[in-house]
Specification:
Blueprint (H helix, E strand, L loop, with lengths): L10 H9 L9 E5 L2 E7 L4 E7 L6 E4 L7 E5 L4 E4 L7 E5 L2 E5 L16 E3 L6 E4 L4 E5 L7 E5 L5 E6 L5 E5 L2 E5 L7 E5 L7
Antiparallel strand pairs: 1-2, 2-3, 4-5, 6-7, 7-8, 9-10, 10-11, 11-12, 13-14, 14-15, 15-16
Length: 199
């Protein structure tokens, strides 16, 4: 799989694949009926009808091994989730009380505690990163039990986070996309975002 946008577009697809949940994007029409998202995706030559399990209205995590039958997991109010690259039963969720941990594939989560983070990215063992609402970048080498601040992402409020490996981190903010190649100590602007009125 290759990316032409600095690897930013593949994160939702990779996360969906790791969790065994569908990713529904680029819909022209969408409706939610009883915890199921139904939509239409228009292509150049045809339209496609899609249906997927998604419980965002209740904060319900749903997974599927075959994308036909769905297993309801925990209900929680989370902004973002990350799955361990080593053990798919270990799932972290960012909550208003801190990072909540599941050790059973999202069936249950402990109470959020510790570092309050907005977004997580966990590409490899020992390379778990999180960013807080002020742009502070944090790294955990023990699956989220403890966090160490490594730096601050410039550019305002964070919008997304992608760690490529233990050293390379990309963060999208309200002002642009920034990259670090030293684990968050320093950042370079990769793509500015215009904040012109009407944009």
């Amino acid at each position: 799989m290759a990316s032409t946008d600095g690897t930013m577009g593949v994160v939702p697809a990779l996360l969906a694949e790791r969790l065994g949940v569908p990713q529904v994007t680029l819909l022209s029409e969408v409706s939610v009926e009883g915890g199921t998202v139904k939509g239409r995706r228009d292509g150049d030559a045809a339209s496609e009808q899609l249906e997927a399990g998604y419980g965002s209205t209740r904060g319900l995590l749903r997974v599927s091994a075959d994308r036909r039958s769905w297993d309801n997991r925990a209900e929680l109010a989370a902004l973002h989730i990350a799955v361990s690259p080593k053990d798919r039963d270990v799932v972290l969720a960012t909550t208003e009380d801190g990072v909540a941990t599941s050790t059973n594939g999202g069936r249950t989560f402990g109470a959020g505690s510790g570092q309050v983070l907005a977004f997580l990215s966990w590409p490899a063992t020992g390379a778990l990163y999180g960013v807080d609402l002020d742009g502070g970048l944090h790294r955990s080498t023990d699956s989220g039990a403890t966090w160490q601040k490594t730096g601050t992402v410039p550019g305002g409020r964070p919008q997304a986070l992608t760690a490529v490996d233990a050293g390379r981190v990309l963060a999208a903010t309200q002002d642009g996309v920034y990259e670090s190649r030293d684990g968050g100590k320093t950042f370079s602007e990769r793509l500015p975002v215009s904040t012109t009125v009407g944009h």
